[in-house]
């Protein structure tokens, strides 16, 4: 496996936009034990003399490090509140042996397991639960082994500052290269995977059905990803980025209307993301809509500008706003930072701003008409400034795959993916009257969009999980309202069949995990 070591953020970009013994008495003197967790701790104790090292990997609530370790990767700060249910034990493995031991002991002593790769779960499901649970935190397993000659890399699940690759690829995963290379899961070649019995499997030994399921069907429903083998994709030495804002007064509505036709069909080397905000005009009390167009082109501006002049002259991209930078620098730009920001920030987990929001997703298959856009703009202007729409065009390589190639089904015919979000900035929690009002506004926006988004089913992205869709799982009728939206009927039913074979007792479960009936 081992060829060479490179920065985790570099591989992430290429692929996606493309890591015990002494006696129990002696052990307990080094590891703080919460009443009720003694059996688990006794079970997982090391069979060697390295007890001190072990004490730095296992934490219970009486340990001073417990809360800081739990909090550090809670990427959505609305869950940072005393009422959020926390783990009984946190295990931070450095190797597969401790993962295997934690799985065995959790099963033996009646704990569920939650798997936290990067902590970017939109509903906090990787680090909270209403039942006693052990949290496997993969922050220490983030090595990357690169085979340059064969353009592949083995990447452990803890890689990346926020979106850990374990869950990211398990749900599909998209980035600025999706129109050229598809989803992250489309570029998975192999896996090291632990099943419910603790067996470590690869693509060959697990069989084609399970390998299909974990690439977009929610890998944590089936077991534990220990490492992905990924296809590395080529990117040019320089890419071109631009950022351009348009308001209603500058013709934003007509420009966005055309964007829906152009962005999904233009050259696959060009990806133009948009962000839509409502804001006040200067110091007045009148509001407008501002649309930010963020473009990245896999080539030079000398090639980009003629392309846009031909296909999308209304956007008005000029040479002076186009910047040619290294591909990895574009990640910094799309984080909203200057291109001159040192790329070392990509390896600093604490440098990236955390979320504090509630989100929903949709897919658009028919361009939204002008009158529909105006309704949406009016709705946004009724918001208190907490709302954001982030829109990514599809098409290109995404349309080359069938919707059943992997469980991720949002393929041919999808024009746009919409992420709708409200933040809770300025609020002490997500349950204040103002926060609840924002959530109700988001749900009313969701209702307003109904005529303009996909139907039968109304599609949603499983990595933008949304418990408003439902959590029922005792039978298909209960599970289908959310399962078919994430994966469509045929894929969801296939995932259920595979789950029944590989985890028949439904040990790997959480809200909206693949059910067993």
Percent helix? 25-40%
Alpha-carbon distance between the two ends: 39 Å
What's the helix count? 17
Number of strands: 16
Q: In one word, what is the shape? A: globular
Mean pLDDT: 92
What is the radius of gyration computed over CA atoms, rounded to a whole number of angstroms? 23 Å
Question: Overview of this structure, please?
Answer:
The protein has 17 helices and 16 strands. It has 517 residues and is an alpha+beta fold. Strands 13-10-12-11-15-16-14 form a seven-stranded antiparallel sheet. The relative contact order is 0.12. The N terminus is likely disordered.
List key phrases describing it.
517 residues; alpha+beta; seven-stranded antiparallel β-sheet; five-stranded antiparallel β-sheet; 17 helices; 16 strands; globular
Q: What secondary-structure arrangement, pairings included, does this model have?
A:
Elements: H1 8-16, H2 24-28, H3 38-44, H4 51-55, E1 58-59, H5 66-72, E2 89-91, H6 96-108, E3 112-116, E4 133-137, E5 144-147, E6 152-155, H7 165-170, H8 178-181, E7 188-194, E8 200-201, H9 203-206, H10 208-214, E9 224-231, E10 239-247, H11 252-262, E11 270-280, E12 287-297, H12 301-311, E13 323-325, H13 327-334, E14 357-364, H14 370-381, E15 387-393, E16 416-423, H15 433-448, H16 476-487, H17 489-502
Parallel strand pairs: 2-4, 3-4
Antiparallel strand pairs: 1-2, 5-6, 6-9, 7-8, 7-9, 10-12, 10-13, 11-12, 11-15, 14-16, 15-16
Cofactor: FAD
GO molecular function: FAD binding; oxidoreductase activity
Domain FAD-binding PCMH-type: 83-283
């Amino acid at each position: 496996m081992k060829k060479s070591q490179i920065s985790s953020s570099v591989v992430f970009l290429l692929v996606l936009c493309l890591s015990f013994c002494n006696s129990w008495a002696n052990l307990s003197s080094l590891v703080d034990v919460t009443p009720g967790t003694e059996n688990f701790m006794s079970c997982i104790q090391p069979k060697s003399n390295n007890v001190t090292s072990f004490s730095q990997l296992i934490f219970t609530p009486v340990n001073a490090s417990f809360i800081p370790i739990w909090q550090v990767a809670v990427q959505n700060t609305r869950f940072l509140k005393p009422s959020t249910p926390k783990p009984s034990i946190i295990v931070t493995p450095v190797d597969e042996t401790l993962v295997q031991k934690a799985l065995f002991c959790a099963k033996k002593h009646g704990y569920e397991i939650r798997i936290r790769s990067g902590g970017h779960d939109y509903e906090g499901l990787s680090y909270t639960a209403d039942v006693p649970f052990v949290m496997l935190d993969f922050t220490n397993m983030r090595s990357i082994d690169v085979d340059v000659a064969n353009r592949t890399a083995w990447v452990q699940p803890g890689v990346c500052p926020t979106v850990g690759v374990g869950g990211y690829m398990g749900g599909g995963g998209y980035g600025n290269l999706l129109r050229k290379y598809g989803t992250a899961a489309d570029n998975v070649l192999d896996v090291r995977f632990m099943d419910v019995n603790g067996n470590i499997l690869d693509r060959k030994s697990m069989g084609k059905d399970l390998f299909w399921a974990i690439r977009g069907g929610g890998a944590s429903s089936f077991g534990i990803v220990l490492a992905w083998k990924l296809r590395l994709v080529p990117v040019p030495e320089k890419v071109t980025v631009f950022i351009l804002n348009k308001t209603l007064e500058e013709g934003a509505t007509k420009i966005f209307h055309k964007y829906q036709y152009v962005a999904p069909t233009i050259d696959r080397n060009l990806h133009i993301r948009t962000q839509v905000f409502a804001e006040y005009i200067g110091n007045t009390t009148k509001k407008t809509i501002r649309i930010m167009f963020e473009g990245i082109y896999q080539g030079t501006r000398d090639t980009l500008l003629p392309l846009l002049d031909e296909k999308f002259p209304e956007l008005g991209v000029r040479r002076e706003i186009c910047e040619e930078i290294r591909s990895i620098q574009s990640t910094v730009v799309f984080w909203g930072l200057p291109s001159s920001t040192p790329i070392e920030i990509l390896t600093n987990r604490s440098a990236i701003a955390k979320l504090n929001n509630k989100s929903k997703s949709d897919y658009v298959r028919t361009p939204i008409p002008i009158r529909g856009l105006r309704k949406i703009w009016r709705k946004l202007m009724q918001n208190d400034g907490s709302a954001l729409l982030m829109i990514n065009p599809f098409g290109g390589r995404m349309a080359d795959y069938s919707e059943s190639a992997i469980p991720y089904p949002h393929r041919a015919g999808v024009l746009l993916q919409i992420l709708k979000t409200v933040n809770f900035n300025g609020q002490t929690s997500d349950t204040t009257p103002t926060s609840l009002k924002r959530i109700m506004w988001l749900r009313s926006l969701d209702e307003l969009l109904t005529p303009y988004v996909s139907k039968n089913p109304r599609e949603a992205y499983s990595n933008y999980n949304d418990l408003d869709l439902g959590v029922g799982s005792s039978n298909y009728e209960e599970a289908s309202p959310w399962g078919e939206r994430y994966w469509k009927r045929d894929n969801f039913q296939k995932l259920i069949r595979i789950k029944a074979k590989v985890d028949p007792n439904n040990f790997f479960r959480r809200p909206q995990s693949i059910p067993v009936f």
